[in-house]
């Protein structure tokens, strides 16, 4: 077995009396899509926050690419190759789609303490940004203001930004939420292509998508991983059926 | 090429008008000193606009950097030093150092807290200058001589001084625009609109904001050194928080969307102040309502007015109504 790209050990987090993450241990291998499913309020987003560095866990460790990153802030983890998307779309509305992505390229291409040269003319940044937009199928709206994009396009833009970071691991928090059937098809196709390049930790409600994409699935209930397994194992797991999926969902 | 030109047309036209003004009947001492004041305050306002509109940092203590620049000139004057090659760099450095120290603390906060803490630092600077009894304390200090350059007294010539101020104002404006369009500026703008996004791609906004804060402080120091020369008198009033508020007023009236707006804002306020103070005693009473009106009817400020006007005309034009019918 290859060394895991991401390894969580005994992660715990409380908000006051509420336990949102309870002794979570899991791994993501290189090239693997590890999906996390669970009912609303199970603590999936909070877990992503802790992995990306926007929240500190109370206990436990996070190892990324062989390094303990538990104490590293958000932006430092990003520079190490940990890219995340947000459940609620987070883009720079006043930028064009291209500039949103170029910002991510810029972050890993030399110093940004450059004060005079117009960054909009930096070919190297723009070309890489355009390539990332093409990957997610947004090439034709590159020069449109990000605020003017449709909801689905914004989700895709966020994915393009993450790709442009040239990351090693993608943390995706419900990337399909709110997308129409066609956009969902397209996004699933994109994620399938990306899996060879990155490890992906995928939080997603769309069961069809999860079963189509995931190599392994962990089920989170009340902050605790109740089971981790392959698609078939999860589909047939009795506790999962009762706790989360509901009998009819699998009928 | 035409789009950026149109965007900056109004600010550019204002600078050209300022260049022509001395030859169009505004060449007397009174008019020139008024215009010099407007240009110098415009410089400080442009640097504040860089913070407010560019980086999203609403400072209510920017006048302190101007005051420190001015007091540096005064302190050297008291020590018998008036060489510009010493005085001006010192004024800029002193203001930048102040910005570095206060910015390092202030920038750890945001929103209303940032406004309050910049105000507090500004007040500290204000009371510090008031206590310099050797520099006149509350009463202020009258400059013995204007700053010299390599021993020559070129600043004494009002026309020279006019074009020096204009040149520096243009430089600050062009430099500020380049800055906002650079890699550095893009990080600032991204962090203003969505700091979470900036962090997510790997940018910690703090160092970028601090550098911007120091740069704006340096420009404030330069403006202060010029102002001391323009008025040949410096008092703590220069650092009062109302002065900072006035700079902010200039930025908002001019339009936060473009740093060039601050030039228009400064000019408008200095000229308005002058004409109103002749007309009535309580002219300051008019200022408040004026700001309210400008925010209501010119949300993009003076620089945004032509576009807004054009849109209004198009909306009201019969052609459009016919097209809709
Ligand atoms: N900052 C917070 N303070 C207090 N409670 C929170 C906070 N963030 C999330 N929670 C609570 O933690 C639980 C898990 O939330 P979340 O991680 O968003 O769940 P999921 O993403 O699985 O729907 C919810 O009950 C939520 O209300
Ligand atoms: Mg969630």
TrEMBL record, chain A:
Keyword annotations of the record: ATP-binding, Nucleotide-binding, Transport
Domain ABC transporter: 6-247
Name used for this protein in its record: ABC transporter ATP-binding protein
Recorded superkingdom: Bacteria
One GO molecular-function entry: ATP binding
Source taxonomy: Bacteria, Pseudomonadati, Pseudomonadota, Alphaproteobacteria, Rhodospirillales
Signal peptide: none
Species of provenance: Azospirillum endophyticum
CDD domains referenced in this protein's UniProt entry, alphabetically: ABC_Mj1267_LivG_branched (cd03219)
Keyword Cell membrane listed: no
Pfam family of the protein (one): ABC_tran
UniProtKB/TrEMBL annotation, chain B:
Segments passing through the bilayer: 85-107, 114-135, 159-180, 210-228, 248-272, 279-298
Organism of derivation: Azospirillum endophyticum
Keywords, in A-Z order: Cell membrane, Membrane, Transmembrane, Transmembrane helix
CDD domains in the cross-refs: TM_PBP1_LivM_like (cd06581)
Signal peptide residue numbers: none
Domain of life assignment: Bacteria
Name recorded for this polypeptide: Branched-chain amino acid ABC transporter permease
Claim: Cell membrane is one of the keywords in the record: yes
Pfam family, one: BPD_transp_2
Topology in the lipid bilayer: Multi-pass membrane protein
Compartments where located: Cell membrane
Location, primary (coarse class): membrane
């Amino acid at each position: 077995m290859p060394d895991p790209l991401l390894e969580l050990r005994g992660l715990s987090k409380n908000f006051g009396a509420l336990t949102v993450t309870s002794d979570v241990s899991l791994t993501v291998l290189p090239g693997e899509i590890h999906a996390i499913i669970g009912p609303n309020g199970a603590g999936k987003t909070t877990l992503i926050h802790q992995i990306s560095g926007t929240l500190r866990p109370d206990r436990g460790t996070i190892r990324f690419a062989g390094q303990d990153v538990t104490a590293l802030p958000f932006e430092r983890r990003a520079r190490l190759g940990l890219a995340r998307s947000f459940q609620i779309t987070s883009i720079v509305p006043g930028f064009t789609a291209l500039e949103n992505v170029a910002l991510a390229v810029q972050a890993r291409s030399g110093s940004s303490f450059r004060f005079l040269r117009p960054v909009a003319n930096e070919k190297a940044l723009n070309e890489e940004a355009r390539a990332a937009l093409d990957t997610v199928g947004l090439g034709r709206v590159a020069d449109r203001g990000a605020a003017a994009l449709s909801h689905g396009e914004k989700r895709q833009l966020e994915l393009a930004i993450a790709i442009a970071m040239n990351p090693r691991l993608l943390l995706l928090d419900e990337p399909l939420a709110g997308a129409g059937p066609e956009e969902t098809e397209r996004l699933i196709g994109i994620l399938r292509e990306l899996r060879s390049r990155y490890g992906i930790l995928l939080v997603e409600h769309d069961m069809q998508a999860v079963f189509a994409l995931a190599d392994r699935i962990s089920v989170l209930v009340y902050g605790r991983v109740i089971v981790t397994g392959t698609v078939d194992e999860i589909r047939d797991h009795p506790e999962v059926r009762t706790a989360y999926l509901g009998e009819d969902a699998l009928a | 090429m035409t789009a950026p030109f149109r965007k900056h047309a109004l600010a550019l036209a204002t600078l050209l008008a300022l260049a022509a003004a001395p030859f169009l009947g505004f060449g007397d001492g009174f008019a020139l000193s008024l215009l010099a004041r407007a240009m110098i305050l415009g410089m400080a306002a442009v640097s504040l606009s860089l913070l407010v509109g560019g980086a999203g940092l609403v400072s209510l203590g920017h006048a302190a950097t101007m005051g420190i620049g001015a007091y540096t000139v005064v302190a050297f004057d008291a020590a018998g030093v008036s060489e510009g090659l010493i005085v001006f760099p010192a004024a800029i450095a002193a203001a930048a150092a102040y910005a570095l120290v206060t910015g390092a603390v202030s920038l750890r906060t945001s929103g209303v807290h940032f406004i309050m803490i910049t105000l507090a630092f500004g007040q500290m600077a204000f009371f510090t200058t008031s206590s310099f009894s050797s520099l006149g304390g509350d009463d202020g200090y009258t400059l013995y001589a204007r700053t010299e350059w390599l021993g020559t007294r070129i600043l004494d010539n009002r026309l020279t001084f006019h074009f020096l101020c204009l040149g520096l104002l243009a430089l600050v404006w062009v430099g500020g625009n380049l800055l906002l369009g650079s890699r550095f500026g893009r990080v600032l703008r991204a962090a203003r609109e969505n700091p979470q996004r900036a962090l997510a791609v790997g940018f910690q906004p703090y160092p970028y904001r601090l550098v911007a804060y120091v740069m704006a402080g340096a420009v404030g120091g330069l403006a202060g050194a010029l102002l001391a020369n323009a008025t040949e008198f410096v008092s703590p009033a220069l650092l009062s928080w109302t002065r900072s508020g006035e700079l902010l007023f200039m930025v908002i009236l001019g339009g936060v969307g473009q740093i060039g707006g601050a030039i228009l804002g400064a000019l408008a306020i200095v000229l308005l102040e002058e004409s109103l103070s002749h007309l009535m005693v309580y002219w300051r009473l008019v200022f408040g309502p004026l700001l309210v009106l400008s925010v209501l009817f010119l949300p993009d400020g003076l620089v945004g007015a032509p576009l807004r006007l054009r849109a209004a005309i198009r909306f009201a034009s019969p052609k459009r109504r016919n097209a809709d019918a």
